[in-house]
Amino acid sequence: MDIAGSIWSFAAVVALLTLTPGLDTALILRTSLLAGRRPALGVTLGIQLGTLIWGLLTAAGLSALLAASQPAYNVLRWAGAAYLVWMGVRMVMAARSGAEGVPEQRQEEVRFRTGFSRGLVTNLLNPKVGAFYVAMLPQFIPDEAPHAAMGLLLASVHVAEGLVWSAVLIGFASLMSGFLRSPSVRRFLDRLTGVVIVGFGVRLAFTD
């Protein structure tokens, strides 16, 4: 398979992965519905930076070492699970308390930074992303291609598709924001998303 064929084949595979509802989708939709476009953009950029880092680590061979070391994988897996459960519980508790936080303008600014770090940490602490790249990326790198550069290029394709799909999600959430930002709906969405994220954390903890 030549380089162009590898890129198109990889793009088709990660398109299916991108469109499949998961943790990233839940985080982006929740942030966009409850906080607006700017904080949701922060989550999106954090997630995609994490994806790019995993691609770079895979191209450099570092994540292959992680995949080969069960103790290291377990440490990262449990750290990721603990972070997701902590984040989900905080959302549920915030929904129950009904706290509005700081004034709106300052809140949006803080939430952009918080959203970015939340997306980045969530992605980096998910060893399944690294396992996916370890399993899939080498299959799409031709023998004659420089592995580091090709790995970065393929990861960039994944990031580009993720950005496009995230923009669609944020646009949809913006259209629905008038109804979905009422206080009662906001609390329900925060509670629902928190429970879903806790579920992802528990699943990550108990899935090898």
UniProtKB/TrEMBL annotation:
GO terms for cellular component: plasma membrane. The chain crosses the membrane at residues 6-29, 41-66, 78-99, 153-176, 188-206. It comes from the Bacteria. Its main location: membrane. The keyword Cell membrane applies. Keywords: Cell membrane, Membrane, Transmembrane, Transmembrane helix. It is a multi-pass membrane protein. It is found in: Cell membrane. Pfam families: LysE (PF01810). GO terms for molecular function: amino acid transmembrane transporter activity. PANTHER family: ARGININE EXPORTER PROTEIN ARGO, ARGININE EXPORTER PROTEIN ARGO-RELATED. This is LysE family translocator.
